[in-house]
Amino acid sequence: MKKLNEKISFLQGLGQGMNIADGSPQGKMIIEMLGVLSDIADNLNGLRRDFESFRIYVESIDDDLFDLTENLYRDEDDEDDFVQVNCRNCGEDVYFETIYLNDEDTIEIVCPNCDEVVYVNDGSFDFEPEAISDILDNQKQARQDGSSPNH
Ligand SMILES: [Zn+2]
CA–CA separation, 30 vs 32, rounded Å? Predict the structure, then answer.
């Protein structure tokens, strides 16, 4: 962009050297046009500066988004985010992620063993699936209750 400014300055200097502004109307016209060219070059320089800061801003957003998705996938690996449902048709234990429970779209969870629908997140199923960690905790609690005569 500096090169463009230099070229325009060169043309303006050339025009002054030829005294074209003192002569014909065409000469005055050329001086005006060179002035407009100079303004355009200045505007382009401003746009380039704005674009550069915008690019840096977008890169920082991209980095933040990367961190966010990293954390999201790390959370999904957590066993607490799975739900266990027992298939009414064949008795198979079906596991799916809790994110499907509150998904905006209607999602049917299908038994991988017999293709029976085991859960739909539209409220039509009357049971509330529990997170696996809760189920395991309850089982552990039940075993402890059974083995202890004080309870
Ligand atoms: Zn089944």
Answer: 5
Q: What is the pLDDT along the chain (151 residues), one digit of tens a residue?
A: 568 889 999 988 888 888 877 778 888 888 899 999 999 999 999 999 999 999 999 999 999 999 998 888 776 555 567 788 889 899 999 988 887 877 788 888 899 999 999 888 887 776 655 555 555 556 666 666 655 455 5
Cα 115 to ligand 1 centre (Å): 6
Q: Is the dihedral of CA 79, 82, 83, 88 positive or negative?
A: negative
Which structural domain, as residue segments, surrounds residue 127? 76-145
The answer to whether position 60 is within a domain reads no
Å from CA of 93 to ligand 1 middle: 8
The answer on 85 and 26 residing in a single domain is no
Residue 63 domain flag: no
Please state the domain count of the chain.
Answer: 2
Q: Are residues 42 and 92 in the same domain?
A: no
Q: How far is the CA of 142 from the centre of ligand 1 (A)?
A: 27
